[in-house]
Amino acid sequence: MTLTGKPRGEYAKTASRKREILEAGIEVFSTSGFRSGSIREIADKVGMSQAGLLHHFTNKNELLAGVLELRDNRSRAFIDFDAPLGVESLRGYLGLIEYNSSVRGLVELHCVLSAEATSPAHPAHDYFVERYRYVVESITNVFRRIDDAGLLADGVVPENAARALIALTDGLQVQWLLDSSSLDMVDEARRHLQPLLLVEL
Description:
Layout: H1 8-36, H2 39-45, H3 50-56, H4 60-76, H5 86-100, H6 104-116, H7 125-148, H8 158-178, H9 185-193
Helix pairs in contact: 1-2, 1-4, 1-6, 5-7, 5-9, 6-8, 7-8, 8-9
């Protein structure tokens, strides 16, 4: 028995229920956005009352934070930004793009919320500002390690390459959401990256 007296099975059940709510949150926020997506709609998807949902997440902003954390945890499983060989980090980036091709809801979530969050009043504004800062810095360091290894093409500036890759990826996601049959995101990203490198990606 735990210190609170609750059996382990109850904790597992609570964790499982929270995961169900977060999955439903991804679905609702990715299609309706944060402002239009409602707690009631999310609660209905998991077959519980609003009061029951608010037992797990005290408000909509806390639920949004949980949804974004879940998305980030999934992404981090694909990329080691600190890998000694920067090329391996880029290969992981391509692996993440391939994974995203199989989870439309997560791609929609990113596109919808990142657009909404350009407003400073949006609860995810600071999150996205910090997220882009972190991603630009991390990918810049990846290109710097590639450069240090003598594997970056002449004239490629690491920070510029990082920002261009992020912009390309975001733009490809929007095009893919509009018509998934019109392009292969992994192939397009690889075609962009390969000329920047002196080694096969």
